[in-house]
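To close the section, here is one more complete example, presented without commentary so you can practise reading it yourself. The ligand is zinc ion.
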Amino acid sequence: MKNLVLAGVAVALVLPVMAEARIDVTRSANGWVLSNGLIEASFSYNEPGTFQFDSLRSLVWGDVWKAPENVISSPIRFATTGTAVDAYIPLRFISESTQQIDRRGTRLSLVFDQNDGGFRIFLNLELFEDQPVLRYSVRVRNTLERERHVRMADMLSWNFAEPRGNSFRAMRVNQWSVLPPLKNFEPKESMLADDATPLIVRSGAGEPECAWIAVRDSRDRGLVAGWEFDGRAEATAQRIADEGRLRLSAQVSDLNRLLAPGDEFQVPAGFIGLFHGNWDEAGFRTQRFVEAVLAKPLPDTAKFPYVVWDSWAYQTRINEALLRRNAEIAAKAGVEMFIVDLGWAKQIGEWRDDPAKFPSGLRALSDYVHSLGMKFGLHIAFAEAAAESAVVREHPDWVATEPYQYFGAKPLCLSHKPVQEWVIAELLRVIDEFGVDWVLQDGEHIVKQCTRTDHTHDPADSNYSNAVDGLNSVLDAVQKQRPNVSWENCANGGSMMTFNMVRYYVTSITNDASGALGSRQSVYGATYPFPPRYTDRYMPENGSNTYQTRSYMFGGPWIMMNKLESLEAADLALATSEIRVYKNLRGQVKDSQVFHLTEMPREGAVDAIQGYLASADTSTIVVTREMAPESNYLLKPQGLRPEGNYRVRFQDDRRIYMMTGEQLMRDGVRVQLPEAQSAEIVYLEPADTPFGGLNLE
Ligand SMILES: [Zn+2]
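Output:
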């Protein structure tokens, strides 16, 4: 290791750049150390000019992830036609700075020039209070006097030494897909082969998997990683035993970014974090980071996730009178938001209310919904338009080359500037004209494929361009101008489960009204990478029993998709009381650590999912019998204080127990599930007096 080579910058050996009280960026003799008391990330810069990652260290568990002995690792990795810029390309150090950033973070910004002068490279490294996670991003500027194309960009360029005798398991989770083979957030665990065979994760709009991977070794030292990109990407985890390394990578697919002289390119950001333990622990560390740092803030800290009603039970056969009747019933039952789904407009792409369905206008319905004390949500598939709509008739050239049709409509190319301007203006008008509080985004894959040569984007750069220049620009523009409107991510279900998505949307659908069992299955898998609020669920059933209602209680907004005006009085009474139950537990679940106490829900079994809220030491556990032969279940919760005393109570069963955490976790407590399909909610609350298993009833 040689001393740091500085170009035109004053040298100080130790430069404690204090931003937040608890986050330090320290200058070592030849590099930088970032620390927040939980994690320490070390990088160095050595002659003849290589910038490299040295180690990630847990200051809590003592785990150390070092760079490999014989391979240089750097988060800077991209390529143009003919030139790769990676750890082995000499860089000239230009400058550094640190600053406090939002969400209780500190950013170290480093600037380098490629030695032969092709690119200026801006690297950001960020730590946040209380999070054992490093977030990073790379931006590059073309400093040549000629055009170049960026053909590869790695959002997850990390190499770690692999201790001898080690083995690695990896975990990733499917998205939702209705195309065969059907996917519904199945978690997938596998060993990494030692012959460098990559484990592949394909993420982004319409792809099979969520933009997340977790890896842990035989001693339960773990890494979690995510990338903030909505377009298609291919990530890999490889164990290259003969080089003694574990390699991670996540590349933007089909990248072909034209950079004119002086142009810049932003590699989508990524994060890598540490955990120690099982996959629930991997999920917990990811989720807390997402909530603390990335996610769109909650629209309402007291009431979110909302109880919602959505009109899709009627499909497009909706009208003013019908919706008013449903709104009255919904408000009385305790629903907080009323969504008008597809079918309100004249046609897809013609976002004017249909006067035949709404003789008084959609605004009158929105006003009525507001007068009942509910928020008003509206479905809009803003990147789709029917062939007969005015926009397509006037601008047939705005249609993207993507071949699918959403309810017969054509896809619009959001990265074509005129389309973008039209969509932004339409969204602003629709929000204002109809008093919209909540946008239910829908459509087919929201990141389109478009290879047209007459659009403002490069036809060969469709994927990145439609994601970043297209979708993200539209969301940026509309959300900046209408900051109080919340957005729900949906594209025929949860098929864009990325860590860029969480920055724009307050929730996401998981599957698309797939019924009680399907709902619990999706929540089971999605609550590994994503916080519980990013699993909203559409309930197509009437909600005639608590098996149905409770299959939708754990997660984000509970969205009823039934015909309220045709429900029996008994069903309505049940819905009303179950809504009260949900409102009492939602605040606990949203910030809780999720324990997946059973295998993924399936027919013939009992499934149980626990939310443990550390700040209150309380647990909310939903236990469901799905045609299992046995009528009770021995519940063994996790994460409790062994010596703590807990009151155990049930939503239905009138027994109350007092048990220690150790008794609960070791011996368990019996949950009664009398019907073949039935569900119970178990609450654990800290209690002062020990009663050791005494039944107080
Ligand atoms: Zn296009």
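Once you have examined the tokens, check your reading against these statements. Residues 1-21, 692-697 have pLDDT under 50 and may be disordered. The first strand starts at residue 24 and ends at 28.
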